[in-house]
Structures are given as structure tokens and as C-alpha cells.
Sequence to fold (609 residues):
Amino acid sequence: MELQVSNSPFNQEQAELLNRLLPTLSGVQASWLSGYLTALHAQAGGVVISSQPNTDAPEVQLTSASREIAILFGSQTGNCSGLARKLSKKLTEQGAQVTVSSMSDFKPNNLKKVGNLLILVSTHGEGEPPDNAISFYEFLHSKRAPRLEGLSYSVLALGDTSYEFYCQTGKDFDQRLEELGGKRIVSRVDCDVDFDEPAAEWMNDVLEAFHAEQSPKASDTPVIGGITTNETESEYSRTNPFHAEILENMNLNGRGSDRETRHIEISLEGSGLQYEPGDSLGIYPENHSQLVDGLIGFMEWSPEEAVTIHKQGDQLTLRDALLRHFEITVLTKPLLAQAAELSTSERLQELIAPGHEQELKGYLVERDLLDLVQDFQLKGIAAQSFAGILRKLPARLYSIASSSKAYPDEVHVTVRAVRYESYGRDRYGVCSVQLSDRLQSGDALPVYIQHNPNFKLPANPNTPVIMIGPGTGVAPFRAFLSEREESGAEGKTWLFYGDQHFTTDFLYQTEWQRWLKDGVLTRMDVAFSRDTDKKVYVQHRMLEKKRDLYEWLQEGACVYVCGDEKKMAHDVHATLAAILEQEGGLSPEEAGEYLLRMQQEKRYQRDVY
Fold:
């Protein structure tokens, strides 16, 4: 349609220019222009058009901070970084200028320049920030943190209610930003392990608070930490897992071992799922039928009774719901509080009352739902009412033990079966025992890929690599070396590995030996703790080789640690600090700062649990 001067506010020259321009515009360009003119009108001259090529959006400089947004994420396993990308895309599509960054990549001194800040952060261990949030967390809680009266912010906190300090890092950020003068855009939301719905609700509240307009895309590939994300995504994800076939399921431990460690190969053919070494495989398990049937029998429920499992009204039979949908092996404080509301048990009311925190904390350890209903005689509660207080059965994450370059359309994991006796009953690791006892080649398993940008090989293939992974913590290093073999990387590699016995517990022994022979693995030091009178662990081997290890660090080596967070990872960290003090002549404070810099430079990465 041609613009006519007679029915428009334009003069003849302007109308001719517009009539020549408008027919040549693509849909994206027309949408861009519409959004630009809207912003121009609203800001009365506060908009400038970028002269940079290859962009679909204007640079919008607004006196109101409603369109410039910084998103910072702190993530140990990748959940918060994934949510940050999703939020960035939503805001960008609605015309906002968004920068997304890991907290470790963000320069704290720039915080004063930020008008709108969205923080997505998980809590690691006992109320601690994840590794890539430590430096920013410490800066914000130090005397160097600036006043932030001009800041608008909101926090999304991820955590696990089975831990005492649930979402503590997110709570700390929220409180500290308020203390510094910031104003909340929307209230903080704390998410349990099933975080998808509350996270989506928080995102929607944020979008509404910013009054985001349906305007042009600022970018089809938002920049995250300096890297564009334009990967082709699979239709399968955490919320829509792929039912993958098991190709191989074998025990890696020798006869006579006290342990059972399964090497499991899974087909991804037809899924479109892609991964890199350092990523994890999410597996949705089933609860043990023995526990499910014991719970149903004690409560005198009908296993075929239909129960609602979602807000949307989806239903399953009670037995199927307890097998596949609900968490029944872990007790949490919120669960006991809700169970107390459904029951008349005075003993349960007393346990959750103020002043009994330590007793409650002790009770939650190594007990499950059957213990709860038996200990407090919770019979008589309707199945649907009880189902209403249960949280969703979370996926289990396992470090991927394969390279897709070496094994196309496959993913491998290394899983140790967990079995123990507690309070007079045998207990089972939900996923590990299902994999070891109840699944075999040909069976299907619901899986997804959990991308972890915080545990990645160095971009430079010549960079030396030090890997520390006792037990199943060695899994990602099998993937690392396989990847380096396929890509022809020539940098030095050094593996510290430990377990109980050399003869029965040396996982992937023949592969390490082959890589040593071929030069893919330069050095390997092992520690088998039960083969000598004195227990020897990987940190002891590190101290024995401290001079060489320090030289590797001075050469710019990257250090990777995988395994138990509570003890092993802390001991390894302390050992690294001790080596820096002894070989480098650093003070304890200087050694701590050295390791912190290594983390900020991505030279010290951990995949711990």
C-alpha cells in the first residue's frame, strides 16, 4: 500500500522516501522499525540507531532502566546457566537489551553501572555458593561492595529442601543487595529440585514487571559470557526426556570386591541429543518396588486408586505414581511439617516444634517415607492427601564417561551401586540399584543431557591438564582423554586416581594403560587405600609429587576435580593450597588467592557432589 500525502502527516519529500523504502523491507526489518519508532516516541530522543552491521535491533539508550538488563548466574551443574539463557531469550525477544554472564566472568567493579540485575544462583553443599559464584559472592559481602541505590534486582534461588541451608546462597544475595540499597523488581523465589514451574512463574513475573513490549528481536543469538549460543537444540530435554535403549550394562569391579560399579552404554540414536565431555546425563529412575509395596501395605491403600500428580489434573494409579513420579526415599523438614498437618500425631508435632532442630536434623538422616508413617503411625490419611505433600522424583545426574567423537550416538556413564542397612532395613540407591539389578541390554531409560559449562577442557589443546578423580569420579576423565585422542590434542595430561584395591577396583585399567602407551595420557598416579596398612588417598600422591605438580601449575596447567564434595574435594583443595605454600613460598592467604584466580580463569574446575 502506497503512502499518500493527503492522508498522512508527511510532506511530499518524506512520503516519497518512505514509499521507496517500505516495499524493500523484510518482515524482520519492518518489525524492527516499528519497535524503534515506539521507543523513539516513548523516550523523546533517547534512542540512537546502531551503525554496526549484522544486527536486527537498535541500541536503545533509555533514561529509564527498563530495557537494559544484566543477568548473572552461579551454577555448579548447569541448571542456572540454562535458565539464564532461557530468560535472556524471552527478554531479548521483547526488545530488552540483555547481557548474560557467569558470575565468575563478571567484573564486580562494573556493578555500579548496572541498572537492572537478575540473579539466578544455586546453593552448593552446606549453604555455600557454587564455584563460579564464589568471587562475586565474596566481593558483594566485602567492604569493597558499592552502594547500589540505583539498582533494581530480583533473585531466583535453586536448592534442595533435604539440605539444612536450603537456597542459602540465593537468600544471601537477596538480603545483601537490599542492604546495599537495591530495590526488588519482584520477590525472590526459592526452588526445590523440581524447579521448572516456580522458575517459569518467576520469569513471567519478571517479564511483566519490565513491561516488555512485543517488539523486534534484539538478537537471534544472545551473547552469553562472550560466546554466542546458536546450537541446534533437540526436542528432548529435562522436561521431555528421551527413552533411550541400554546397549551394554557391565560390572567393572573384579570378583571379591566390596563394590559394584556399572559401566553403562546408552544409545542416543534418533534423539538429536548432543553433549561435550564435562556434561552430565540426567536419568529419571524408578523407586524400588519393595519400598512402594511396603508403604502401600502399611497405609492400607489400594494400589489401583487413581491419584492426581500435576496441577493440570494428570492422574496415575497410586502404585505407578509412587514408583515413577514421587520422591519417597528422602525426608525433608517441609515434608514433615506438611505430614504433621495431616495427622494427629503429638510426637510428630513435637519433633517439628521450635527447639527440636537438632533432633529433627538427626531424624531426617537415612530414613524414608515408610519410616515416617511407621514411626508416627500415620495410618488413616487418604492417598490423595498424602500424595499432595510429596515432591516430584528428581532425576539423577551422572558425569558422562564418553566422547561423542569416539562413540557417535552413544553416551556412557559410570555408576556405583549404593546399598546399606539402616534402622533395621536394607536401603537402596534409587537409580544406582535400578541400573545394577533391574535393567539390562535392550531396556529403555528416560534420559536427557545436562550441559555443564563449568567443567570443560581448555580451548587450547596444548594446555597441560591435571585430572583428580577417585572412584567413579574418574568418569569424566575417560571422556576427556577419549576426546583428546580423537582431536589429536598434544598437551600434557596427568591423572590422579584412587580406589580401595588394585586387583578388584581399578576402573578402566586397560584403557588408562593404552592411553599411557600411546601418549594420550602423559602421567598417572594411583592410590589404593586398602592395599597398605596406612590408608593412602589421591591427595597423598599429590603431595608426593608436589614439585612436579607445582611446575605444571606454573606452566599454566588446568586442574579438574571430580567426586565427593564433602571430604575428597575439600582435602584436594587443601592439598593444592599446601603445595603452593611449600613449593611456591606463598602465605596461606596468597595460596587461597592463587586458587581463586585459577577458578576465575577457569584453570581450576570441579564437578563435585
